[in-house]
User: Fold this.
Amino acid sequence: MKIVVDAFGGDNAPLEIVEGAVDAIRRNPELEVILCGKEQAIKEILNGRDERIEIVDAQDVVLNTDHPTEAIRKKKDSSLVRAYDVLKEREDVVGLVSAGSTGAILAGAIMKIGRIKGISRPALAPILPTKKDNDVLMVDSGANVDCKPVNLLHFALMGSAYYSIIYGVKNPRVALLSNGSEEGKGNELVKETYPLLQAAPVNFIGNKEGGDYMSGDVDVMVADGFAGNALLKGSEGAVNAVISVLKNSIKSHFSSKIGYLLMKKTFKELRDRIDIIGKHAGSPLLGCKKLVVKNHGSCKRNNIRASIEQTMKLHENHLIEEIESSLAKLNITEE
Assistant:
């Protein structure tokens, strides 16, 4: 199984990206990785550890300040564009992993790879922990700011298929983000989407408010990219704020420091549970003809390794075929 990696995408590239690929190779004897980027720099990091690793030289880099579409069109010798070329042109390459510019990754996926037939728009699908043992998937989290009801319908189908594969849940609970849990609540988009999800081949449990997102009672939360991104960023900000307040409170009192020492193991478990960037792999761009996984820009080698293994799992469990199967059950295939 071959996966192409953008070795120069992300804040910690190329060192952490290359090391993550090496870790994935060590753990998965059936895996081959193609690293795209400045060949000499990659070779120096590998230092001879090149078994089952291929390098595609690319001397340019797509920056976060670049206009996404223009970058894909004009930066043809960049690590991201070269990676997309490899993914598009080589049938034996099953997926792409990058921690680069989100906008450029989205643009490249649409311009170079294309959508699954019948999918109106691809969507980003990150995962957050909940207060229970399960995680929750947000789809869409920012790829599509303005949406139609059919887009949210497709998000629900893709999110349900993805969650089922990753967590082994046969019928994940799918909810629609709204400003109230009752049927009939929400804006026009939510009201028009509701009956579509009721009739869709997913386990639709109705509307849920933003406060229900991390309750553990929802597996897949469906939203337009604007609302989904706002909820996701708000959740991350709230978690970071609570951690900051807790740290300052512990430091300000001697008794709190003693309490921290006694509860150090508990605090570590809490940190590991809510450490989104450190714990999880990247966010798949659902709906493309081939697998594309977007990592957080500040990710480290363990995230890259996890994303490569995630891509392998999605391929082995036929995510794209599962999405196509779900689409075949619908009468709505609006482009």
Notes: The two ends are 32 Å apart (CA to CA). The chain has a mean pLDDT of 90.
